[in-house]
């Protein structure tokens, strides 16, 4: 959400923050989708 210019906020219980390697994969996929014009 934050990458797309929207407020995502912190993770709420019972979910935990993503592990760094998973966060990097999600970030890369999101950046790719945004670069391709997806909103």
UniProtKB/TrEMBL annotation:
| Organism superkingdom | Bacteria
The name this protein carries in UniProt is Dihydrodipicolinate synthase
Origin species: Kitasatospora cheerisanensis KCTC 2395
């Amino acid at each position: 959400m934050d990458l797309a210019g929207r407020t995502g906020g912190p993770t709420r219980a019972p979910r935990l923050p993503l592990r760094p390697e998973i966060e990097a994969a999600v970030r890369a996929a999101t950046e790719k989708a945004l670069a391709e014009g997806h909103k």
